[in-house]
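In the previous chapter we treated chains in isolation. Here, by contrast, the input contains two separate entities that must be folded as one system, with a combined length of 514 residues.
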Amino acid sequence: MKTQIKPAAVGALGIAGALLLWQYLATGPMNGSALPAPGHAIAELAALLATGTFWADLADTILIALGGLAISAVAGIAAGLLIGSFAPVRYATMAVLEFLKPIPPIVVLPLVVLVLGPTAQMSWVLVVIGCALPIVMQTVAGVHDTDPVARDTARSYGMGHAEILLRVTLPGAMPFIGTAMRVAAPAALVVAVVAGLLGGGPGLGQSIYQAQAAGDFPVLYALVLVLGLLGLVFQGATRLAERRLLHWHESYREVVL
Amino acid sequence: MKRKALNWSLGVATPVLLVAAWWAASANSMNTFFPPLSAIMVRFRELWLFDHFGSDILLSLRNLLLGYAVATVAGVVIGFVTALVPVARWALDPVIHFLRGIPPVALVPIFISLIGFGIEMRVASIALAALFPTLIATVDGIRSVDTTLKDVSSVYRLSRGEKLAQVYLPAAGPQIASGMQVSLQVAFIVMIASEMLGSSEGIGAMTLLAQQSFMIPDMWAGILLLGVIGFGANLVFELLKNRILAWHAGSRRLANS
């Protein structure tokens, strides 16, 4: 028990130290610059929490991130199963996918903003562009990794192609898909913020842009604090969801000795 | 054998066909958003080869490399300290995880507010944003070093320096490398974002300005160049990684066979 209290206590000290450093910088060497004192930013955060627009922006950002993620998941898994199951399709698409994979969605942001304007649809499209491709690639890898014995067994039991796909291949690929989703969920949040910040889509990204453009620095820092917490929540929630949804798979089962 | 040849030709043919289809479909395009690919290529050559090569391409790449170098060196060093000194780990862990939760692009407005729109802002944004993937991968990599390996190096009475350079660094190498790869992608994204948000020079700024002033072929040329750079940076990293970590791939192959 003692061993758990000590890291937590030191961790709290670390946070306190970071806040103290911030306080020192804001009031000492960087006094008068754009850096607000932490108390100022936190007071601004409390004031933000009392406004309706903040919650509407927060809801917009979360909705865009989760909605885009859901579309990417459905489309990505379907495309991945298709590509992974047929060798010719895989060979035909892999070079193209490998080329597109390292290109982040921010590269096509000017084009998407041009066509759709600074709208929520624009943000949705960017999130899907950012998240779908990694999910496709991981699903393909997962399909490839499915136990061939299980697949052959299913075939000799007389299962049809569709049934094998749904009851053997898809569950077998699930850990890969889970990993992809764990990476994609925080990325979806990032893209949703970027779409607001650079493209003018609705949500917290746009609020940050406005705070910066207006020179309202305490609000800017308050919003970034909110985003940091939101990022933590996204990471924690996806890890939890992955564990709960995939507890049946052998790579997640708890080892019983 | 014949099948294999067919698969490979599919892999080569699809990208070629896609580009040809784009060329043909857009040849007489009157759509403002999707100009003929030939027009885009003309602007691509006029802009990037080599009119804006020194003033914008090299500038962007230099910022990218500088920020990325700072991020990876600092990430590995801080990662080593955090992983090997328990007090440092307990104190820094919560702070690091909170900062990592912030979408990297949201750091750009903060740096703009602190140090203006200059080159320092861009490099600092890139460096801080790209720090965390390397840092966290280094910590995880060192913490998962085989205990037997640690015991053996203690029994052999390796000095602290020998342990760090000859045991921990190679053992954690593969994980550090994948962290550095993510850092590179983040650095690339923040490079574009920092130019789009607050500057008139650099590839990202030129692309966004072209969009805003409705010079659509210029915008497309920028998108293509950014795509090629994103792909190329990742490719160079892969090649270097495979070279430096060749021993790792080799030992894995041996272990599997």
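Chain A is about 80% helix and 0% strand. The domain at 54-243 of chain A is CATH 1.10.3720.10 (MetI-like fold). Compare these points with the single-chain example from earlier in the chapter.
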